[in-house]
Design a protein that fits this description.
- The chain is mainly α and 338 residues long.
- Helices cover 64% and strands 1% of the residues.
- The chain has 19 helices and 2 strands.
- The protein has a two-stranded antiparallel sheet.
Length: 338
């Protein structure tokens, strides 16, 4: 892209604007988009390099309701996109989006199924080998994959889930064989030059976050029976730091009693505004004010340190749930009576 070439698509203009704003301001804008829109914009940002001054001025002028931001950055790319997403959605969601964007930039296999109905996909695949189904499902977006799994009988759910969790890397030749094996039902398959990452525990966890409680229980029971170590790893990853917004105030107050203040500050450095506000309202006014001040004066920190602090807090949450001191609600779970 150069100064003379301002003939951009609407998506490219939006991406250029988000780059111009800088990651902090862009993250606030991004929170108002739907997930599919965020993925599309992230893809455009990741493909975009330096944004020339002429392009910056053009997109800002077109968005007349916004003032010129002089301190914005002028380059996109994967690092910018990851930083922006981490600020807007939290580190876990950022990783999920970037994984999808990387696949998309290379031509994602099975994207033909993006608009297909989950029940129809399940019906088409139910007689395939569980390993074949696992490969296909692991490439679907989490919500779509959850819908497909939910439409299988319990025995097949368990088998497919086990194979998704155990899957690592799959060669393009195997993916081609799968395409042929389902008799052309999955067309427009774009192959990658190198091996593609597929499945794994993280993929299964993303899917389980989308299914109802009965489906989750059936899958976890099957994993407990067939792969207990995998089942334990899945349970450890089922609750991520940003899920803290699903807890009630009583649970938050109990958790905060066991959390180290240094971990809390670090964890909130990379948290969404919704999470921060939840924590602030469950502290005393004095404690909340002190925490805000410490966050305000804290300089840049490594994302790895933020994620480690968040993981330690998640560990405390899991311990408290195991001890029945707090309750973590999940989709389809029975209501809790106080």
């Amino acid at each position: 892209m150069d100064d003379e070439n301002l003939d951009l698509t609407g998506k490219q203009k939006a991406a250029a604007l988000l780059i111009t704003l800088g990651p902090e301001a862009a993250s606030h804008v991004l929170k108002h988009f739907e997930e599919e829109e965020i993925e599309t914009l992230t893809y455009e940002i990741a493909q975009m390099g330096r944004v020339p001054s002429g392009v910056k001025e053009a997109v800002l002028e077109e968005c007349y309701h916004m003032s010129f931001v002089s301190e914005g950055l002028d380059a996109g790319g994967y690092e910018y996109a990851r930083d922006m997403l981490a600020r807007a959605l939290g580190s876990q969601k950022a990783r999920e989006f970037m994984d999808r964007v990387k696949l998309r930039s290379q031509g994602a296999p099975f994207d033909f199924l993006d608009d297909a109905d989950p029940a129809q996909i399940a019906n088409s695949l139910k007689n395939e080998h569980p390993q074949t189904i696992a490969l296909i499902v692991s490439y679907l977006k989490a919500a779509k994959a959850a819908g497909v799994l939910s439409n299988f009988e319990e025995r097949l759910q368990g088998e497919v889930a086990s194979r998704i969790a155990a899957m690592d890397r799959v060669s393009p030749d195997v993916i081609k064989d799968v395409e042929a094996g389902v008799k052309g039902k999955l067309s427009s398959l774009l192959m990658q030059q190198n091996y593609a990452s597929a499945g794994g525990v993280a993929s299964l966890v993303s899917i389980l976050h989308q299914v109802d409680r009965s489906t989750e229980k059936a899958i976890m029971d099957a994993l407990d029976e067939n792969q207990p170590k995998v089942a334990e790893e899945v349970r450890q990853k089922m609750f991520i730091f940003e899920n803290i917004i699903t807890l009630d105030d009583r649970a938050i107050q109990r958790i905060l009693r066991d959390v180290d203040n240094k971990d809390l500050i670090l964890a909130l450095k990379g948290a969404s505004e919704e999470v921060k506000n939840l924590i602030f309202r469950n502290l005393s006014k004095r404690a909340a004010q002190l925490l805000k001040e410490e966050l305000g004066i804290m300089g840049p920190v490594r994302l790895r340190n933020v994620e480690e602090a968040q993981q330690r807090i998640v560990g405390i949450i899991r311990q408290l749930e195991t001890a029945d001191e707090i309750v973590i609600s999940r989709p389809g779970q029975d209501e809790v009576i106080s």
